[in-house]
Amino acid sequence: MPLKECMKKTVTFGLVISAVCSSVGIVAAEPHRSRNGFTFGAALMAGQLGCTTSDGADCNSSGASEAGGLALRAGVMVQPNLAVALDLSGMAHREDRVKTSQTLAAITARGWLAPRLWLEGGVGIARSSAEYDLTVVNVIDESENVLGGLVGVGFEVISSRNLALDVGLRGATSFYRNDVRLYNVALTVGVSFF
Q1: Measuring CA to CA, which of 1, 122, 154, 164 is 20 to 30 A from 43?
Q2: DSSP string spanning 120-132?
Q3: Which H or E run contains 185?
Q4: Any idea what the CATH number is for the domain that residue 111 is in?
Q5: What pLDDT, on a 0 to 100 scale, did the predictor assign at position 81?
Q6: pTM of the predicted protein model
């Protein structure tokens, strides 16, 4: 599935979830209160994992592949509308007997532009791997640790002082030898505790 088509489906899916939750009254009516102290959370991710060369060409002929993953986050609210956290995330794609994955450990900042709307970004260390199931033995090819980064935007469908359930859009990228760039783009559904 082309990346542009996946992005359209991901955004549409997020808007549908927000509309449905709002229409059935799930959205908390309580006004937003300032948050402080520690924060932690998790998010499920569904999207695409892809690879490009320095000239922008796909690393393989099939383009980006559908992938799923998980993100875990723990940090502290440094201001009522700003959190700094360690974010650990990974996305993987399995096809036939080959599993490809990208993981990222990043220091992130998440800031709320409005009581329920947040933006985040961060930098860290990324790693990719390919696992080949050869029936008799598994062969794993892992990359070196490289610089990676992530950006995201989200909307809290349920929002209170201590808990938030959100939908978001997130992208991550990392740069490897020979000017190869691995990236992922995903719709996220997450929970955060404050």
Answers
A1: 1
A2: EEEEEEEEEEEEE
A3: strand 180-193
A4: 2.40.160.20
A5: 93
A6: 0.76
